[in-house]
Design goal:
388 residues, alpha/beta, 2 domains, 9-stranded mixed beta sheet, globular
C-alpha cells in the first residue's frame, strides 16, 4: 500500500459523519469527481486542490439553490461527492503547511520527580493560557530532549515549542536509563517498569492540573508501545492516545528465540551510542543536514550509552482490542518501522470506533523534526480538539 505523495487520513468517527477518507489513489478520486479530469494533476498540490474544490462546491450549491426555486434543469452533486469534497477541505488544515512555521523558543522547566522509588527527569513547557495537556514518551534509543526539544540555530524544530504555540502544556519524560534519568539498580528497563512509571507520572500531572481536561498521551516509536500498555491498564487517566511512528514491525521480532536469548543475558550490555544509531530513521532530502548533525550531536551527548531493554515478552500483552479510548495513529509515509499494510491491519482492530489514521507524505520515522513536522502537529491538534 503506497502513498502517492499526498497526506491521507482514514477516519472511523463515532458519529458516523466521516466514515472513510482515503487519499491514496488519484484514479479513485478522479472517478469520484468525474468529469473534473484535472484532479489527477491537482492532487500533486494540496493548496491548488483546495481552491479547486471550493470553486466546485460553490457551483454545485448554486445549482442546488436554483433547483430549490423550481429550476429542475440543474443537476445536483451526488451526496457522497459533496461529503468527499467537504471532508478533503477539512483535511487541508492537516497538510496545508509544507514547512514548520517560525515559532518562539519557550523556557524549559526541568523537574526531578520520585516515581516508584526512582528519580526521574521530567520536562515541561507551557503556553500562557493553555487549553490542553500532552505528555510525550520517547522511544527505544534516544531520550526526550533530542527528540522533543532539539535546539537548532537556523530554525526552531522543537516539538514541545510547536505544541506550546498551539496552546498546550507539554510534558516529556526521560525513562529509566535515558537522558538525565539514571538506571535503576538492575540496570535494565522493561515494558512493565516503563508503563508503570508513565502511569504514576500521569497521576502527578493530574494532581498539578485538577481543573484541566485529562492529558493526551503521545507515544513515539517504542514509546507508543509503552503508551499502549498504559491505556490498557489505566484508560481513565488520559483523554486520548497518539501513536506516532508505531513500530508494528518491531513486534514481529518478538519471538521465542529472541526471548530465550534474552534470558541468557545476565548483565546489561551498555553499548556505546553511535552516529549510525542516532541518525537512523531519516530519509533523503527530508531535512537540512544542519538539523541532522545537531540531532546526532545532542543524542551522543545526552545518551552516550544505550539503555538496555529486558523482559521483551511483556510486549505480548499488547492487544488492539484493549484500546478503549480515542486513538490517533500517525506516521511518515516512508517510515520503515510502520509499513502501511501492517499498520492498516492494526488500525482496523483498534476497539474504540473514534480513531483516526494520518500519514505524513515525504517523511520518515523522524517526521517530528523533518521539514513537514507542522503536519504532524496539526494532525495531533485537530485530533485533540475535534469536538471543540
Amino acid at each position: 500500500m503506497g502513498v502517492l505523495g499526498l497526506d491521507w487520513l482514514w477516519s472511523d468517527q463515532a458519529n458516523g459523519s466521516l466514515l472513510l477518507i482515503l487519499l491514496k489513489y488519484k484514479t479513485m478520486f478522479a472517478r469520484l469527481l468525474n468529469p473534473f479530469s484535472l484532479l489527477s494533476v491537482l492532487l500533486c498540490n494540496p493548496k491548488t486542490l483546495t481552491r479547486a474544490m471550493v470553486v466546485v462546491l460553490k457551483q454545485q450549491l448554486k445549482r442546488l439553490e436554483h433547483r430549490s426555486q423550481g429550476d429542475d434543469s440543474s443537476t445536483v452533486l451526488n451526496p457522497l461527492l459533496i461529503t468527499t469534497i467537504v471532508s478533503v477541505l477539512f483535511l487541508n488544515s492537516i497538510f496545508a503547511e509544507s514547512i514548520t512555521p517560525k515559532i518562539p523558543e519557550i523556557l524549559l522547566v526541568s523537574h526531578k520527580i520520585k516515581i516508584n522509588g526512582h528519580t526521574f527527569s521530567v520536562y515541561e513547557k507551557k503556553a500562557d493560557n493553555p487549553t490542553d495537556i500532552i505528555l510525550l514518551v520517547h522511544g527505544r534509543t534516544i531520550s526526550s530532549l533530542p527528540n522533543f526539544d532539539l535546539q537548532v540555530e537556523s530554525k526552531n524544530v522543537s516539538l514541545m515549542d510547536a505544541f506550546v504555540a498551539k496552546g498546550f502544556v507539554v510534558y516529556a519524560i526521560d525513562l529509566r536509563g535515558f537522558g538525565n534519568t539514571p538506571r535503576d539498580d538492575s540496570g535494565w528497563i522493561t515494558p512493565k517498569k516503563a508503563s508503570s512509571d508513565v502511569i504514576r507520572l500521569l497521576e502527578w500531572i493530574a494532581a498539578r492540573h485538577p481543573k484541566k481536561n485529562k492529558p493526551t498521551l503521545f507515544g513515539y516509536s517504542l514509546g507508543s508501545l509503552v503508551s499502549r500498555l498504559v491505556v490498557q491498564q489505566k484508560p481513565n487517566l488520559v483523554s486520548g492516545l497518539v501513536l506516532f511512528g508505531h513500530p508494528i514491525k518491531y513486534l514481529d521480532k518478538i519471538d521465542v528465540s529472541a526471548i530465550k536469548k534474552e534470558k541468557l543475558a545476565i548483565n546489561p550490555l551498555r553499548k556505546p551510542n553511535t552516529v549510525e544509531w542516532s541518525s537512523d530513521g531519516f530519509i533523503a532530502n527530508s531535512i537540512p543536514q544542519e538539523v541532522i548533525d545537531r540531532y546526532v550531536s545532542a543524542c551522543l551527548k545526552i545518551d552516550p550509552i544505550l539503555a538496555d531493554w529486558n523482559n521483551i515478552a511483556e510486549w505480548n500483552q499488547l492487544d488492539p482490542q484493549a484500546i478503549t479510548i480515542p486513538t490517533l495513529l500517525i506516521n511518515g509515509e516512508h517510515d520503515p518501522y510502520a509499513p502501511a499494510g501492517k499498520s492498516a491491519s492494526f488500525f482496523s482492530k483498534i476497539r474504540n470506533p473514534d480513531k483516526t489514521w494520518v500519514v505524513i507524505s515525504k517523511s520518515g520515522h523522524n517526521a517530528h523534526i523533518e521539514d513537514f513536522a507542522a503536519r504532524l502537529v496539526n494532525g495531533v491538534v485537530n485530533f485533540v480538539r475535534r469536538y471543540k
